[in-house]
C-alpha cells in the first residue's frame, strides 16, 4: 500500500492538522515508512505466542469485585461548596 500526497492531505484534514502544501510529500513518505514497518510486523509468525502483560512473566493482580462507598463520604463532601444530608446540593435548573 502506498500513500500519495492527496491521501496525506486528506489524513491531515481528518486529523485537523494544518500541513503546508510543500510539506505534503514528506508527510506522505513518513506515512509510507510507517506502513512499511507495519507490513514487517505482519510478517512475524506469532502462532502459539500468548499475549503478555509485561516483558517479565507475571500474573495480573486480582481483587474481589465488590461495590463499596469507599468510606470517604465526609472527605468527599468536604470539597463541595454546598452539601446537605450526605449529598452534593446544586441549584435547581429545571422548573
TrEMBL record:
Protein name: Aspartyl/glutamyl-tRNA(Asn/Gln) amidotransferase subunit C
EC number: 6.3.5.-
UniProt superkingdom: Bacteria
UniProt keyword terms in alphabetical order: ATP-binding, Ligase, Nucleotide-binding, Protein biosynthesis
Function: Allows the formation of correctly charged Asn-tRNA(Asn) or Gln-tRNA(Gln) through the transamidation of misacylated Asp-tRNA(Asn) or Glu-tRNA(Gln) in organisms which lack either or both of asparaginyl-tRNA or glutaminyl-tRNA synthetases. The reaction takes place in the presence of glutamine and ATP through an activated phospho-Asp-tRNA(Asn) or phospho-Glu-tRNA(Gln).
Gene3D superfamilies: Glu-tRNAGln amidotransferase C subunit, N-terminal domain
Catalytic activity: L-glutamyl-tRNA(Gln) + L-glutamine + ATP + H2O = L-glutaminyl-tRNA(Gln) + L-glutamate + ADP + phosphate + H(+); L-aspartyl-tRNA(Asn) + L-glutamine + ATP + H2O = L-asparaginyl-tRNA(Asn) + L-glutamate + ADP + phosphate + 2 H(+)
Statement: the UniProt record of this protein carries the keyword ATP-binding: yes
UniProt similarity note: Belongs to the GatC family.
Oligomeric and partner information: Heterotrimer of A, B and C subunits.
InterPro entries according to UniProt: Asp/Glu-ADT_sf_sub_c, GatC
Amino acid at each position: 500500500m502506498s500513500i500519495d500526497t492527496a491521501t496525506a492531505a486528506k489524513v491531515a484534514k481528518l486529523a485537523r492538522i494544518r500541513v503546508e502544501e510543500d510539506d505534503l510529500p514528506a508527510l506522505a513518505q513518513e506515512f509510507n515508512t510507517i506502513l512499511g514497518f507495519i507490513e514487517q510486523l505482519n510478517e512475524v509468525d506469532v502462532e502459539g505466542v500468548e499475549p503478555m502483560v509485561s516483558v517479565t512473566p507475571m500474573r495480573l493482580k486480582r481483587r474481589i469485585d465488590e461495590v463499596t462507598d469507599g468510606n470517604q463520604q465526609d472527605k468527599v463532601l468536604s470539597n463541595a461548596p454546598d452539601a446537605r444530608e450526605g449529598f452534593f446540593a446544586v441549584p435547581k435548573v429545571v422548573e
